[in-house]
Each structure stands twice: as C-alpha cells, then as structure tokens.
Amino acid sequence: MNWKDIINETGIEVIWIEKEYSENGSYIPKCSLYPNGAIILNLKLDDQCVECVALHEIGHLVSGKALILVNERLKHLEHCRNEAEANRFLLRNVAPEFVEANDFNTVWASPEKLCTYLGIRNTFENLKIAQEEIDYAIWDAT
Fold first, then answer.
1. Which of 35, 120, 124, 137 is the Cys-Cys partner for 95 at CB 3.0 to 4.6 Å?
2. pLDDT for 16 beyond 80
3. pTM for the whole thing?
4. Please, which contacts does 2-6 make with residues 24 or more away whose CB atoms are closer than 8 Å?
C-alpha cells in the first residue's frame, strides 16, 4: 500500500507548501478543520522524498499520538517516542521493497544502509527498528 492509498483510506488531508517552506514536511493533529488530521509536504521534494516524508508524517497521525505541550521535558520525551513510531511506520512500508531490491541479502540490505537510504539518523533505536523491519520483510517473503 502506498502513501496515497493510506491517505485515501484514512481521510488525512494533504497540504502542499511552496518552496519557501523550511521543512520537508509536518503534520496537523486531528481538529475541527481537519477531522482526520493533515500532512504538509514541501513542493520542492522529488518523488522518492515525497513518499518517505509523507509516510513519516502519516505515521504521526495513524499512531494517534500528539505531542504533549504541558511540560518541556514531557514534550521532548513524547516527541522522541512519536518520532520512533513515525520512523517505524516509514521503515515498515519501505523495508519489503528495499530487501527485495537487494536480493534478500542481509549484507546489502542492512539496517545502516536502509536508514541512510531513507535519510534517518543511524541511532541505536532507529537501527534496531530497521533490523526488525528487515527481518519481518525477509520472513514474509519466504
């Protein structure tokens, strides 16, 4: 399922912003204006980047978790958890194609290479998630 299918199924709005927008993407939590939430995408992104950014931002909305604004520390902790959930969503959707494109070879389809390919920092947590999603993709293919 590609990101456009997910958008259609969930009713999430897509807002395209001109090149002056400084972010690649962001999201708007569910609210009266956007009852299913919305994602904001930068028009300057190429097609491959659009998919990655869109999946990441959709991950924030489908997880149903918004950032906590009460306390800066809680906000930071919640943000980190939301980022991990959004990255997992992205990795889960890209890992099967990535593994297949690398002939199901775990040397070529490594978590480091997958994170680098997607522009995700190679932190311990991201690498762990990437390895799990690579493993799932290989197991599902057999």
1. 137
2. yes
3. 0.58
4. 2/51, 3/50, 3/51, 3/54, 3/55, 3/58, 3/93, 6/55, 6/58, 6/62
Q: Dig out the tokens for 23 from the structure.
A: 């972010």
Euclidean distance between CA atoms 127 and 115, whole angstroms: 7
Q: Which of 87, 85, 115, 110 is nearest to 99 (CA)?
A: 110
Task: Specify the amino acid at residue 72.
Answer: E
DSSP string, 5-56: HHHHHHT-EEEEE-TT-SSSEEEE-S-SS-TT-EEEEETT--HHHHHHHHHH
Say if CB 59 and CB 90 are below 8 A apart. Answer: yes
